[in-house]
Fold this protein.
Amino acid sequence: MNRFFKAILKVIWREITKSTPKKQGAYQFILTRNARKKMIIHRVSEKQIQEVYYKGIMFKENLMSRLYNGYEIGIFFKKDFDKKEIVIISCWRQKSW
């Protein structure tokens, strides 16, 4: 009986911690050295950059920004369709007007 519960718990644990497969059309984010430096300077995380890309507003070609409460985060990127990559060239954070 004890082995039975251990086996069930192992199966449940594997199902919970199993990584989900990537979406077929999902793009991978690549950060340049300059972008990483800017992230440290402006205290921007990789998660915030992805959020700007998916939920932000494009105001010029390859430039996007997103307004938050009291500040704005922007990114400059290049999309590589062949490799399915989004290369983040630079990012910034500034106070909103």
In short: The mean pLDDT is 87. The chain has three helices and five strands.
